Recover the amino acids of this structure.
């Protein structure tokens, strides 16, 4: 209990400030899509997005939004944190391939901005923080701004390569700290990937370019999905803790 109390004292935003946001003034915030579009769509935006955000009741709202309608406008309490994620809807690619979300995180200790632009770098933090809210952990239990900043710095702006399980475990044990943000171990991989250009779920990652001899490069431990736009085929490469890999191809 003592360690959890220390965590809350060092990272938490004042509950009083959050609570006031529920009943205080609200402002419109313009949410702009991430710049550059999606590589898998040749730099254009997807037809639509699934947007999730922390609302004024400290729960998560969900809305499907078409890219064609332009920026999204959300009404949010001034004193509440701003946590928004937007996941591209890529229906033409079969599950389990899904592009990971873009996001934005502005802590309750910062003024509510009138306009923000989503970024792929903050998609991990927005998704992670909203998942904690879905699990019943109050949003004020963690300093949102510091969490997002640390995730970017400790990962070299590639937070999706952080060990998410390690983070969750440290939060559950009340000992979240800078060193809780650990990168997954990376291994050299050689896979018989069919020839072509395969796009990652993470738009900032370069695509895998395979030849007749397959592909070789590096991947972190975990399960990684890739899509080939020429025929919408999906490749899954699983990498275990010993660096052994398994390739699966689905139409």
């Amino acid at each position: 209990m003592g360690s959890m109390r220390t965590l809350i004292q060092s990272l938490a935003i004042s509950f009083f400030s959050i609570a006031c946001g529920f009943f205080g003034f609200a402002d419109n915030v313009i949410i702009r899509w991430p710049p550059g579009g999606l590589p898998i769509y040749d730099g254009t935006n997807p037809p639509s997005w699934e947007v999730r955000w922390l609302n004024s009741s400290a729960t998560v709202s969900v809305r499907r939004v078409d890219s064609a309608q332009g920026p999204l406008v959300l009404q949010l309490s001034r004193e509440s944190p701003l946590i928004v994620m937007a996941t591209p809807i890529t229906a033409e690619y079969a599950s389990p391939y899904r592009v990971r979300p873009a996001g934005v995180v502005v802590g309750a200790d910062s003024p509510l901005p009138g306009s923000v632009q989503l970024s792929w770098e903050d998609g991990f933090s927005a998704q992670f923080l909203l998942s904690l809210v879905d699990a019943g952990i109050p949003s004020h239990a963690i300093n949102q701004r510091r969490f997002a900043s640390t995730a970017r710095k400790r990962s070299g702006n590639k937070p999706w390569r952080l060990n998410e399980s390690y983070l969750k475990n440290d939060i559950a044990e009340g000992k979240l700290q800078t060193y809780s943000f650990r990168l997954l171990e990376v291994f050299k991989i050689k896979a018989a990937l069919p020839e072509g250009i395969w796009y990652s779920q993470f738009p900032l990652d370069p695509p895998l370019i395979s030849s007749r001899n397959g592909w070789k490069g590096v991947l972190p431990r975990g399960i990684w999905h890739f899509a080939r736009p020429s025929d919408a085929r999906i490749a899954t490469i699983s990498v275990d803790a010993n660096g052994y890999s398994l390739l699966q191809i689905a139409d």
